[in-house]
Specification:
Helix content: 40-55%
CATH architecture of the largest domain: Irregular
Number of helices: 3
Radius of gyration: 19 Å
Number of domains: 2
Shape: elongated
Number of strands: 5
CATH superfamily of the largest domain: IHF-like DNA-binding proteins
Structural class: alpha+beta
CATH class of the largest domain: Few Secondary Structures
Distance between the termini: 21 Å
CATH topology of the largest domain: HU Protein, Chain A
Strand order of the largest sheet: 1-2-5
Largest sheet: 3 strands, antiparallel
Length: 91
């Protein structure tokens, strides 16, 4: 399911027009992104949690040329599924 399908599903399920459903989904995802950017953890009970993992920079190699390259430090999102979601998927 992609974002457009989620919007359509919400609109049909709750009898909303597409613009209203788009606003709701956009606000939801923007709020999650803002919280993660601030370093906060986002937990959705029964579904899972999102957090940011920070990785230090390091020296790596270009696999094609063998040249040593510096890889910058980065922050990446990490998702951990909740128990209820795991149980639902395995039942």
């Amino acid at each position: 399911m992609n974002k457009s399908e989620l919007i359509r599903s919400l609109a049909v399920e709750k009898d909303l027009n597409i613009d209203e459903a788009t606003d709701i989904v956009t606000i939801f995802f923007d709020s999650m992104k803002d919280a993660l950017k601030k370093g906060e953890r986002v937990e959705i009970r029964g579904f899972g949690s999102f957090k940011i993992k920070e990785y230090k920079g390091y020296q790596g190699r270009n696999p094609k040329t063998g040249e040593i390259v510096d890889v910058d430090a980065k922050r990446l999102p990490f998702f951990r599924a909740g128990k209820e979601l795991k149980d639902f998927l395995n039942s």
